[in-house]
Write a structure and sequence with these properties.
The complex is a heterodimer of chains A (about 475) and B (about 425). Chain A is α/β, with parallel strands linked by helices and about 475 residues long. Chain A has helices at about 5-10, 35-40, 45-60, 100-110, 115-120, 130-145, 155-160, 160-165, 180-185, 425-435, 440-455, 460-475, and strands at about 150, 190-195, 205, 220-225, 230-235, 250, 250-255, 260-270, 285-290, 300-305, 310-315, 315-320, 325-335, 340, 345-350, 355-365, 370-375, 385-395, 400-410, 415-425. Chain B has one domain (about 1-385). Chain B is built from seven helices and 19 strands. Chain B has a ten-stranded mixed beta sheet with strand order 2-1-5-7-9-11-13-15-17-19, with helices on one face. Chain B has a nine-stranded mixed beta sheet with strand order 3-4-6-8-10-12-14-16-18, covered by helices on one side. The chains are: A alpha/beta (about 475), B alpha/beta (about 425).
């Protein structure tokens, strides 16, 4: 046993003087090894997990915050953040819906979100109104029958260490970029999904049905493994606006698809975007990466990004297995002073790999939208194809829409096609709709929905309907 | 490299009669270059072509001093036959001949600008290198309303008598109102392993028309960097055609500022590469006012582990409503080892615009080859025919028929 290992073992007994009441503890402010050990200790993690975190932290110390991206943001003081805080006690939460911001309630109404659901979203201390626990339990039983593991990642670390140990960090290594590495060091919770060989998951998995889903914190970590021949569809987020006191969100999502497996990952992101003047709002700096490890595997990303003051993410696919397929469907909408820099990376390594990118960007107000993507076909990826389409729609002359694709083709037997357009909603289209009795806002909503249709179709049914409404609502106030 | 730079710089300054102020400016540029060095892949614009590495691998150590006092003999055999034209001849970086025999003498002015250094809005270190070492810098002024009768061909010739490993050139053009100029750059290198660093600046006034054709066709082992800055006023038109083929490495950069309404810019290019060559075209079209137009078409045929890079950017600022921007790059990879990289970029801040780009790369279409072979052509013939057709598309974009024919003959493209 080397020294480091010893040190870690010693620390396992160290309790920091806090003992029982986990509900109310908070890690001291700042980021250092002690805080990481504290988090690991509270989560009762095994030594290898702590080592994983510390390794990431070692790396984090030498990394610099990247500055190549388009949306600039004020410098974040990483020593001024809390990296662990237990859920807020019920006392601090609003007691009834009447205490909420009327604007928020209005939005809920438009989205058609039921009352009890509204309460749940805001963490209102209501009991027995909404029986989410029992609903979730029924689902859980059915999943267990099939051998599917779906639990918080901290539970998985305890109960399924062999799986977590094998796959965690295999797609996003601890030595990755700045925010991913930060996440590896300090992540607190997230989802873990394992679909056994040959199983087709009978329902859409969603954080919604996971007990303990709320307050997963700002550094979420998700790991999804689809074993040979399995299928899973996973939903993240929801259409209702979410408020959160943490400004920085740096989540990591890792997907692994083995032979003949398929993962479909859908996101609807609607974090608080800041007010009309761009004050406040969430920084959403997420690293999402999928590995098509086995042959004939498939990973498909679908995202609807309407919230956050800055969105900065590139859900990527590494197409390693022969005949594997990667897909990326995205709608990004920015309004007021929001900024989004999003896109994807398709890295073709295996033979006969295929990828498809459909990206729709809409910017309004004084916002900025950037599509940034990479298609890389390596010299060994014979007979691979990629098709990329990125369309941008501009509303008003204060916003910006940018396209920055990187295209690398090193294989003569592979084909890449890329198209991009930028335009605005034509006067004729608007006139046509208004003539038929729609007001300008409705008309824009309709046209924009048509523009996004290709992507919305990829979402699971019930999600798609809500997302469609969301698209219209996000653009409110941008017309006229 | 630093000592070599310093020594060669002192030598070249000695031979020039410059004012103290100019020497200081040159010195400042030299220091800038020494600090930055050659661009490398860490710089976004040089991501796909690491010039520092390329120079190291292909040339090794550079030397910079060129003796500009001794003259070179002009070899007339390199002149283009069958096309009457005006000439400017550069031999080993020294301007040997300026000849506007077909034009009215009072309509063209050649101004020696060696003592005034114009700053380029180009942040890379090569402009510093150029500023520090250029000896003579001329400005060619085409006066108001004058349209040159014959095209101007600039011969860039290097031969074995070359002094150093690096040549820096600089030319400025001003096209006054309603004037026009057809300009062909013809490269003819017999020297081995040199680095050519060429900067052009064009200023187009109202209604001026510039047609610039750059032809790098003859096989050579040189490394070239060429930067064109074009400023365009109201109603002006610029057309740039690039044939990128002969050199070992070549990077052509076009920076075009559409400052006046109804100004338009066209950039068309062909990469025809083989044998480990590595070429790049980078174009930046800045739409700065309303009703401007740009069109770009780049086609590549890549054989034998060659590599082509196209970085094109369309920038539209918030005043530039009604912009029309288009960009298309297509590549055929003939060999397993060949590589095509593209970064077609759009940066748009105005809403009433029409901007689009497309990029495609792949192999020759097997179905088309089968079609032709089933009609009696050999595999080789079918291949050639398809490539011919693929490239003809770009050549057809040349608006001047005389020059179009010349270029067609040069690269052996048939109709």
């Amino acid at each position: 046993m080397d020294n480091r290992q010893k040190e870690i073992n010693n620390l396992k007994d160290y309790k920091y003087g806090f003992s029982t009441d986990i509900e109310n503890i908070q890690a001291p402010k700042g980021l250092n090894e002690d805080v990481i050990k504290f988090i690991s200790n509270i989560k009762k993690e095994p030594a290898w997990m702590l080592e994983f975190r510390l390794k990431a932290f070692e790396r984090f110390k030498v990394l610099k915050e990247p500055d190549w991206q388009k949306p600039k943001f004020p410098k974040i003081d990483y020593q001024d953040l809390y990296y662990y805080s237990a859920p807020k006690s019920m006392k601090d939460k609003p007691k009834s819906l009447d205490e909420l911001d009327p604007k928020l309630l209005e939005t809920y109404k438009k989205l058609g979100i039921p009352l009890q659901e509204q309460a749940r979203l805001n963490g209102i201390a209501v009991d027995a109104v909404f029986d989410s626990v029992s609903v979730a339990t029924t689902f859980k039983d059915e999943l267990t029958k099939q051998g599917i593991i779906f639990c918080p990642i901290s539970e998985a670390i305890q109960n399924h260490p062999e799986l977590v140990k094998k796959y965690l960090g295999s797609v996003i290594p601890t030595s990755d970029h700045f925010f991913a590495t930060l996440n590896s060091a300090v992540f607190t919770d997230g989802s873990f999904v394992y679909i056994p060989e040959g199983v087709r998951c009978p329902m859409e998995l969603s954080t919604y049905f996971r007990i303990n889903a709320s307050n997963t914190g700002q550094f979420e970590r998700t790991l999804i493994i689809a074993d040979k021949g399995s299928y899973v569809s996973y939903l993240e987020g929801c259409t209702a606006p979410m408020r959160d006191e943490n400004q920085l969100h740096a989540a990591n999502v890792e997907l692994i698809a083995l032979d003949d497996a398929e993962i479909k990952y859908s996101t609807v992101q609607n974090w608080y975007p800041g007010d009309k003047d761009g004050k406040g709002g969430i920084y959403n700096f997420v690293t999402k990466r999928g590995l098509c490890k086995g042959k004939n595997s498939k990973i498909s990303w679908t995202q609807v990004e309407t919230g956050s003051s800055i969105t900065w993410k590139y859900p990527s696919c590494i197409l390693k297995g022969d005949n594997s397929v990667g897909e990326f469907y995205s709608i990004a909408i920015t309004n007021n002073h929001q900024k989004a820099d999003t896109g994807t990376k398709m890295i073709h390594l295996g033979k006969n790999t295929k990828s498809k990118i459909i990206s729709k960007g809409i910017s309004a107000g004084s916002s900025d939208m950037t599509y940034r993507g990479l298609v890389d076909i390596s010299s060994k990826a014979k007979n691979s194809t990629n098709y990329t389409q990125c369309d941008s729609l501009l509303m008003g002359n204060k916003c910006g829409a940018h396209t920055v694709p990187y295209i690398k083709n090193k294989n003569s037997e592979s084909n890449i096609a890329h198209e991009a357009t930028t335009s605005k909603i034509s006067e004729e289209q608007l006139h046509y709709c208004q003539q038929r009795g729609l007001n300008p806002e409705e008309a824009v909503g309709l046209i924009v929905n048509g523009f996004c249709k290709e992507v919305l179709q990829q979402l699971p049914m019930e999600f798609a309907v809500e997302a469609q409404k969301l698209v219209g609502i996000s653009l409110e106030g941008s017309v006229g | 490299m630093k000592e070599q730079l310093q020594k060669d710089f002192d030598n070249s300054i000695k031979n020039l009669s410059l004012s103290q102020k100019d020497i200081e400016i040159k010195k400042f540029c030299l220091d800038n270059f020494i600090n930055k060095g050659f661009p490398n892949r860490k710089e976004e614009d040089w991501k796909f072509s690491d010039l520092n590495q390329i120079i190291k691998n292909n040339i090794g150590e550079l030397s910079f001093y060129n003796d500009q006092t001794s003259t070179n003999k002009v070899d007339t055999s390199v002149f283009v036959d069958g096309l009457e034209h005006n000439k400017i001849v550069f031999i080993n970086g020294r301007i040997e001949k300026i000849d506007f025999e077909y034009e009215k003498k009072d309509q063209i002015e050649i101004i020696d600008q060696s003592e005034t250094i114009n700053e380029f809005k180009n942040s890379n270190s090569l402009s510093d290198l150029n500023n520090a070492f250029t000896n003579k810098c001329f400005k060619i002024l085409v006066k108001k309303g004058y349209q040159l009768v014959k095209p101007l061909i600039i011969y860039h010739t290097t031969n074995s008598k070359i002094w150093s490993k690096n040549i820096n050139l600089r030319l400025n053009f001003e096209l006054d109102k309603d004037s026009s100029l057809r300009l062909i750059d013809l490269f003819n290198d017999t020297s081995e392993k040199n680095f050519l660093n060429i900067f052009y600046n064009f200023e187009l006034k109202e209604n001026a028309v510039l047609k610039n054709y750059k032809v790098d066709k003859f096989e050579n082992k040189n490394i070239k960097y060429s930067f064109n800055n074009i400023d365009q006023d109201k109603n002006s038109v610029s057309e740039t055609f690039i044939l990128s083929s002969g050199s070992n490495f070549s990077k052509n950069e076009i920076n075009c500022n559409l400052n006046g309404v109804y100004a338009s810019a066209f950039v068309n290019g062909i990469f025809s590469l083989n044998n480990h060559k590595h070429h790049e075209i980078r174009s930046i079209i800045n739409h700065l006012t309303e009703n401007t137009k740009s069109y770009q078409l780049i086609k590549s045929v890549l054989d034998e582990s060659s590599k082509a890079v196209y970085q094109g950017k369309i920038f539209v600022n918030s005043e530039a409503q009604k912009t029309d921007g288009y960009q298309l790059s297509k590549a055929i990879l003939l060999n397993k080892e060949s590589e095509f990289n593209a970064k077609p970029e759009l940066e748009i801040y105005a809403d009433d615009v029409k901007c689009s780009h497309g990029s495609a790369s792949g192999s020759l279409n097997e179905d088309s080859i089968f079609y032709l072979m089933s009609r009696g052509l050999s595999y080789q013939q079918s291949r050639e025919l398809l490539i011919n057709g693929f490239l003809l598309d770009v050549v057809e974009k040349i608006t001047d028929s005389e020059i179009k024919n010349l270029i067609k003959n040069m690269i052996g493209i048939k109709e």
